[in-house]
Write the structure tokens for this entry.
Amino acid sequence: MAIVATCPSCGESVLATHANYSCRKCVQRLPEDILRRLPAFGGSGAFIDARPSDSASTTTLSSSPVVNRYRDAYRVANALVGLGNGLKILGPCLAGAIILLSISMADKLGALALGAIIPAGIPGVLFWIAGVIFAAQGQLVQATLDSAVASSPFLTDSERADVMGLPPIISSS
């Protein structure tokens, strides 16, 4: 994928396929000059360097407390999903490490080390289940926020699209 820009807040690459107002890593709103370059926002997809300079950041967030509250809630939901996904990866890695350690110690401890292979799966499964629960909870929070944002009388359509991370084409149709 072609890189269109870099996020001025965190340095994450913004790909030409990016279709949200905010950075996928730090969830900060991308500056207008980057958004205008993205094909989803009518741009050509040409690269620009948006790394922060010594001057103040060009990121413009809505001053509405409602928009900021929803944006913060989406950050919490994304953090829950990320934590869950991390636990789902950590569980099998932990189980694998215990299994490898048991196999490597088999010559010293004999059957006792080999007996640890089966119980090694227990923390792996528990971490994976916890990860599924955290990720599901985060996605439930996101779905609830989507419903709340969509029905809020305090937001305009463009603010709704902005808070949900949708391209402006969605709010204009």
Summary: Confidence is low (pLDDT under 50) at residues 47-61.
